[in-house]
Structure formats: C-alpha cells, structure tokens
Specification:
The complex is a heterodimer of chains A (116) and B (112).
Chain A: E1 5-7, E2 10-13, E3 19-24, E4 31-37, E5 43-50, E6 53-56, E7 65-68, E8 75-79, E9 88-95, E10 106-107, E11 111-115
Parallel strand pairs in A: 2-11
Antiparallel strand pairs in A: 1-3, 3-8, 4-5, 4-9, 5-6, 7-8, 9-10, 9-11
Chain B: E1 4-7, E2 10-14, E3 19-25, E4 30-38, E5 45-51, E6 56-59, E7 62-67, E8 72-77, E9 86-94, E10 101-102, E11 106-111
Parallel strand pairs in B: 2-11
Antiparallel strand pairs in B: 1-3, 3-8, 4-5, 4-9, 6-7, 7-8, 9-10, 9-11
Classes of the chains: A mainly beta (116), B mainly beta (112).
Chain lengths: 116, 112
C-alpha cells in the first residue's frame, strides 16, 4: 500500500512568486493535515481536513496560504505571493477516519520550500 | 493551546550508550504522547506512544515514561546503534482533538 506522497520534494522560488504543493494521502484516510517545520523549530500545525471540509485552519499563517481538498482525496497548499519567511519543510500527514482514532499520523517525506 | 518543550536539541552518544530525550507539556488535558523518528530524507514515523493511563511503556530497546503530575515525558533508547541516528520529535494531544502538538526535535547522533 502506498504511503503519503508529496510533490514537489523541493521547490526554489523568488519572493513574490507562487508555489503549489500537493499531497496524496493514504487511500481511505479521511483526515489530512498540513504541518510546516522551519529549520530547528517545531513541526507546526497549519490545517486539518476531514474529507473535503476544513476542520481546523487555526494554524494557517495568513491569507497568502490557501489549502484545498476537492473531492476529499488529494490536497493542495498554495502560497501566493511567497515571502522569505515561508521557507521551510511542509509536511502532509493523514490518519484513519474518526471512530477509533489511534492517534497515529502517517507523514509524507515533505516538500522543502526555499524562497529567495 | 498546548505547548511542548523538548530537550536537548542535539544529542551525541557513542554506540552502545543510552540516550534520553525529555519533553514537557502545558495542557493538563493532554492524554496521548507519541514519539516520531525522522530519518534523513524521510518523513517522521511513529516509533512508540503512551497514553495517560500508564506511566511507562517499553518496546525492545525503546521506552517512554510519563509523569502526569510534573507534565513531562521522556524517551529512552538503550544500547544505541548507528541506525538510531535521526531526528526525534515528541508530541502531545488531548482526547478531544485530532491535532498533536510537536516539540522542536532532537537530533540524535550515534557514533560507531
């Protein structure tokens, strides 16, 4: 069974440009999360989807960030326009549907974003 | 909201030694404490977790302890091996939430 996949693995863009990150969760996982880690700091929560609905977006930094999950399958995270402080590794994770939630998140390998 | 502090940021040990990573949390409602290991080029992966109804859990060379009164929990790795080298993250989550809060990570280096 395929794990969580993220694309691209690394993106280098100029300040002011737009970048779109994609995440494909494990098949059947209704919960999808976006996290970000700036070097040396914590893995910080950005957003949580349950199927196609945004359950919690309290961690989104500002309105330059837009996350979507049309159809409740893959998700995209767009940053527009990108700023220097947006640099970091963006992790996507998924977990099984509600009911018996074990607590385990399954992470992708991350998308490293470098804004110059 | 929850705040998780993790120490040390870097830990260097000789192969065969033990390694201990410590975390504290702020929300007394937290009841689930997972530990994730991130190897180079990979995403974090759950290695062990503990719930607030137990004080200790062990899985081969890895153990986690929890002190609810002091709000701290620790990861213990015995007989370290070079393949244990990675970044380790602790996290805490309350029962009603789907969102774990992570610490800053500890880079463990095991020297052969």
């Amino acid at each position: 069974e395929a794990g969580v996949t993220q694309f691209p693995s690394h993106s280098v863009i100029e300040k002011g440009q737009t970048v779109t990150l994609r995440c494909d969760p494990i098949s059947g996982h209704d919960n999808l999360y976006w996290y970000r880690r700036v070097m040396g700091k914590e893995i910080k929560f950005l957003l949580h989807f349950v199927k196609e609905s945004k359950q919690d977006e309290s961690g989104m930094p500002n309105n330059r960030f837009l996350a979507e999950r049309t159809g409740g399958t893959y998700s995209t995270l767009k940053v527009q326009p990108a700023e220097l402080e947006d640099s970091g590794v963006y992790f996507c994770a998924s977990s099984q549907a509600g009911g018996v939630f074990t607590g385990e998140l399954f992470f992708g390998e991350g998308s490293r974003l470098t804004v110059l | 909201g929850e705040n998780v502090e993790q120490h040390p940021s870097t830990l260097s040990v000789q192969e065969g030694d033990s390694a201990v990573i410590k975390c504290t949390y702020s929300d007394s409602a937290s009841n689930y404490f997972p530990w994730y290991k991130q190897e180079l080029g990979k995403g974090p992966q759950l290695i062990i977790d503990i719930r607030s109804n137990v004080g200790e859990k062990k899985d081969q060379r890895i153990a986690v302890t929890l002190n609810k009164t002091a709000k701290h929990f620790s990861l213990h790795i015995t007989e370290t091996q070079p393949e244990d080298s990675a970044v380790y993250f602790c996290a805490a989550k309350s029962g009603g939430s789907y969102i774990p809060t992570f610490g800053r990570g500890t880079s463990l280096i095991v020297h052969p």
